[in-house]
Specification:
Blueprint: E1 3-5, H1 14-26, E2 30-33, E3 37-41, E4 45-46, E5 51-54, E6 60-64, E7 69-71, E8 82-84, E9 96-100, E10 110-118, E11 121-124, E12 139-141, E13 147-150, E14 153-163, E15 181-184, E16 187-197, E17 204-207, E18 210-215, E19 218-220, E20 227-230, E21 234-239, E22 242-244, E23 249-252, E24 258-263, E25 266-268, E26 272-276, E27 284-286, E28 289-291, E29 298-300, E30 310-315, E31 318-320, E32 331-333, E33 338-343, E34 346-348, E35 360-362, E36 367-372, E37 375-377, E38 383-384
Parallel strand pairs: 1-2, 2-5, 3-6, 4-13, 5-14, 6-14, 13-15, 14-16, 15-17, 16-18, 16-19, 17-20, 18-21, 19-22, 21-24, 22-25, 23-26, 24-27, 25-28, 26-29, 27-30, 28-31, 29-32, 30-33, 31-34, 32-35, 33-36, 34-37, 35-38
Antiparallel strand pairs: 7-12, 8-11, 9-10, 9-12, 10-11
Length: 414
């Protein structure tokens, strides 16, 4: 692999650094070594295919610049590669921006790069994702991921610190279109040795991706989820990661996040520990510590048929001191979940609360929930469940990273 080592003269701004990244990719790509530095970004850094962006550990720090709001001058329609603003003062070509209104978040939010500016009209590198109507207060914001990649393959981010600067942000980044580290419709991704904190939005998220490894990373103090694999992402390994003190979940499996292993990781002080739901199947959570979260340690959330959660295994985990202010148990399984296995876990109430709730709370609509060799301590009862919801024998399931046939990818374009 080709290696290029940068010095400080080459990375005085995000614009300079992006130019170096793009030129290196054109020349064949490889490992791009950043120096020890503390750089504030006025735009997100886009990774092309074949780039491995590597820092010097905690001495390489990328900080997000302020997020500012630019109201749209009025209605503008889906698919157009520009938007009219009341004022474009302070914006530059090459900046990354988000566009949304009071109604349109999720995938209705637009994330794009500015391509031209003329008379307060701002050009974008692709069409907007929705109709934005004047009555719904549409705006463009300088909210963006610090590092992102769309429609690429074989990339890596390693050994650096990322600071989201959330208190200096008038707007946060939507969860479906961005995170401090974000990937979309890509494959062959590795993230290791990244210490991220304080982003207005999520720590790490990806949508419609496959073959991803996240290891030895920390994502903390974000306003949204810490970790969010979503929208059909498949064949993913999270190992030795820490996700703590995030406003929402420590780990949020989103729609149809399948064949994922979460191993040897820690989730504490979040809104909920680990949340799993709509079509999030064939996943393995093992040897993790999930403790002192405001809601349930593990929540199998509402997901009625035919998109119910099923065929997952949680084993060898410490699930303790959760459900401090909400939640129905250390483990909470609701609606029509089925074929879930919990084995050899230690489940306990903690000093901060949870003693008045069961270790396992299982709604009567759940089926084939198999519990084996779990040790429950300090909870008001071990299991609150109807006998018809519990399985006498373990369901036969194959789950986790690098399991399943090639059919597991057929819903993806990548």
């Amino acid at each position: 692999m080709t290696t290029k080592e940068l010095d400080l003269s080459e990375v005085g701004s995000a614009r300079q650094l992006q130019t170096v990244i793009d030129d290196f990719a054109v020349s064949g790509g490889g490992r791009l070594l950043l120096p020890a530095m503390d750089l504030t970004l006025d735009r997100g850094l886009a990774l092309p295919s074949g780039i491995e962006l590597v820092g010097q550990g905690p001495t390489t720090i990328l900080r997000k610049g302020p997020s500012r709001i630019y109201p749209l001058a009025g209605y503008h329609n889906y698919g157009m590669c520009d938007v009219p603003l009341v004022s474009a003062e302070g914006l530059e070509v090459g900046m990354t921006v988000s566009i949304h209104d009071d109604k349109g978040r999720g995938f209705y939010e637009t994330f794009a790069t500015i391509t031209w500016i003329e008379d307060d009209w701002v050009g974008l590198n692709h069409g907007i994702e929705a109709d934005y109507r004047a009555d719904d207060h549409p705006c463009l914001t300088t909210a963006y991921p610090l590092i992102f990649a769309h429609n690429v393959h074989d990339i890596a981010v390693r050994d650096m610190g990322l600071v989201g600067n959330s208190k200096n942000s008038e707007q946060s980044m939507g969860a479906c279109r961005g995170a401090a580290v974000y990937f979309y419709q890509s494959r062959g991704i590795e993230v290791s040795g990244v210490q991220e904190r304080d982003y207005g939005g999520e720590g790490l998220g990806f949508q419609i991706c496959r073959d991803v490894i996240i290891s030895s990373c920390s994502f903390s103090e974000n306003t949204g989820n810490g970790l969010h694999p979503g929208a059909g992402s498949t064949n993913v390994l999270f190992e030795d990661c820490d996700s703590h003190n995030n406003g929402n979940c420590g780990f949020f499996f989103c729609v149809r996040a399948n064949h994922i292993t979460v191993r040897g990781s820690r989730f504490s002080g979040n809104g909920t520990g680990v949340s799993i739901g709509t079509r999030d199947c064939y996943n393995l959570i093992e040897d993790c510590t999930i403790e002192n979260n405001e809601g349930a340690g593990i929540l199998a959330r509402s997901s009625p048929r035919p998109v119910e959660v099923h065929s997952c295994h949680v084993r060898g985990c410490l699930i303790s001191g959760n459900a401090i202010s909400r939640g129905q148990g250390q483990v909470e399984i609701v609606t029509e979940a089925h074929d879930l296995i919990f084995s050899k876990n230690r489940v306990a109430a903690g000093d901060q609360g949870g003693a008045d709730k069961p270790g396992f709370f299982i709604e009567s609509t759940a089926q084939q929930i198999f519990l084996e060799q779990n040790r429950v301590q300090g909870c008001c009862i071990e299991i609150e469940a109807k006998s018809g919801s519990l399985a006498e024998t373990a369901p036969s399931i194959e789950c986790g990273y690098n399991t399943g046939s090639e059919d597991k990818y057929r819903h993806l374009l990548v």
